[in-house]
Design brief:
- This protein has one domain.
- Helix 2 packs antiparallel against helix 4 and helix 4 crosses helix 7.
- The strands form 3 sheets. Strands 2, 3, 5, 6, 7, 10 and 11 form a 7-stranded antiparallel β-sheet that branches. The chain has a 4-stranded mixed β-sheet with strand order 1-4-12-13.
- It has 8 helices and 13 strands.
- By secondary structure, it is an alpha+beta fold.
- 33% of the residues lie in helices and 26% in strands.
Length: 287
Amino acid sequence: MIQDRLYKPTKDELTYHYCGAEAFTAMIRSRTIWHTAYSALNDATERKWGFTQFQDAADKLRKDCGAEFIDRITENVRLTQDYSVAMISSYSLNGDLLSQWRAYADDGRGFAIGFSFQELEMPAKPLRVLYDRAAQRHELTNNIKHVFETERRLGFKYNEQFRQHWFHFGLDLCAYKHPSFTEEMEIRRVHISAAALSKDSKRIFPLGAIDGDGVRRSGPVEVQFRVRGGVQIPYVSLDMTDGGKNSPIKEIVLGPKNPDEEENIEAFLANAGWTNVGIRRSEVPYR
């Protein structure tokens, strides 16, 4: 894994998921969060960007680290691109951001749901997105050099531990995004499904989730499809309450063009079993 990208929230820090009214209603009622296949997200370079930065960093180290080492790590990282599907839910550290309202919350008519990430227990890895290209290259270069030095001390065994390290490293590359998205201040949760490739098709099937300590977090999670803009969108639906143990929603922000009233939202939340949730309206002057 890319240890620096693992998100570790500070105490009482909230992260906000922007959405339209229908998605908000469905999430509150079902107590689940949809994690959408990376290919359906709004960033056209999603996941490809991180792999490209890795390739460039690795190629620049080919002389120092040797062609065999670079080829082996590239081969293992490439497997993640071909044989896995990153299912992602996105959050922002800013709960009242105009660009988020416009892009993800029905042009300001929707909601931003404030979650306590410490209570948001799901079989999906929390990653903090890095946008600065120079910082990405620096981070990748340091990681590659560190493993190279370790392998050199061990005699370049290229064993299963080596292969697993670079496979999981490749999965975390989705934490690198194009600099133009910097304003989003994104935290993402990533659940991995598998991709089976054949000559004529690509099939997505469910996997279980195992944490960094090797502890199984979930069994296989069903891959579902929904239609958006006439396109079939793969996703998985994950319980946000850890089986009813947690209540991670702490705040609801109504968008700047949201026509609903705070009292209605308070009643809706209470009827759905959500209590002690703060409600406020956006301060963005957008009409």
